[in-house]
Amino acid sequence: MNDAYLDGYDVVRPVVIDSSKRMLLLVPSGPDGENCWTLPTVPMRSGETCRRSATRHLRKVAHLPPLRISPLIGRLARRDASHGVLYVLVIRSAVDSWPSSVRFAFALEACWWTTAELRSADAVVEPAELLDFMDGYWEGWLPDGEISLE
């Protein structure tokens, strides 16, 4: 995904998850036929926290039902821009599960994946640290709060 119009701004990449199945929702990011997947990009407004930006976008723009944001926040420098920070937040439904239509809020081609499926498919995932971040989340290896993914 080309986020050049956000060059220099901080952005949030929400990881929408299905906790019971240990799956995450990704959108295709490469040219047709390439196995490249990424997270939606949410621009942060001036003065907004990464949690507030994610909530604003997911509730008002994507029209998702009530959600919960994990206390774990991944942070890394943006590689697609001259400067700025990219935050990765884990988002789950506030009720038992997401409605089946949740993937269409992001893209018609959005898919649910496990980290094992992505690895076995040799998929390119952006940010590259996402699979280790999610494995750490699922296994409880990562502390609550903000951590560097670099």
Explain the overall architecture.
The radius of gyration is 14 Å and the shape is globular. The protein has helices at 50-61, 115-120, 130-139, and strands at residues 11-18, 23-28, 36-38, 42-43, 67-77, 85-93, 111-113, 124-126, 145-148. The chain has 150 residues and is an alpha/beta fold. It has one domain: Nucleoside Triphosphate Pyrophosphohydrolase.
Total domain count: 1
What's the tally of helices? 3
Mind telling me the CATH superfamily name?
A: Nucleoside Triphosphate Pyrophosphohydrolase
In total, the number of strands is: 9
Q: Residue share in helices?
A: 10-25%
Supply the CATH class.
Answer: Alpha Beta
In the CATH scheme, what's the topology name?
Nucleoside Triphosphate Pyrophosphohydrolase
Which class best fits the helix and strand makeup? Answer: alpha/beta
Mean pLDDT: 88
Order of SSEs, N→C?
EEEEHEEEHEHE
